[in-house]
Amino acid sequence: MVFAAPADPQRREQLDALAFDAVAAGRRDVIVVDVAERLDALALCDHYRVPPGAFAVVLIGRTGAELERWEEPVATSELWALVDGLDRD
User: Fold this and answer.
1) What is the pTM of this model?
2) 83: part of which helix (H) or strand (E)?
3) At residue 15, what are phi and psi to the nearest 5 degrees?
4) Coil/strand/helix, residue 46
5) Which of the 8 DSSP states describes residue 45?
6) What sign for the dihedral angle of Cα 80, 89, 56, 31?
7) Secondary element (H or E) of residue 37
8) What DSSP character marks residue 30?
């Protein structure tokens, strides 16, 4: 999940990187959620304890648990290495 204010340049940087690497995301069953574009954005901010408008990338596992959090854009190589190391059972 990418949390940020709609005009935050970090948001665009992160979303562009993930879109560029969409094939890799698909192979890993990763779904990118741009929280700024959702009607339930405030509820998601509250649930994941991200102040509204703050930038954060939160990796959520299949069970809904938070697995990792970054406060700045994360390289897709780092993200994929973490995802690839997860137990997929």
Assistant:
1) 0.89
2) helix 76-84
3) -65, -40
4) helix
5) H
6) positive
7) none
8) -
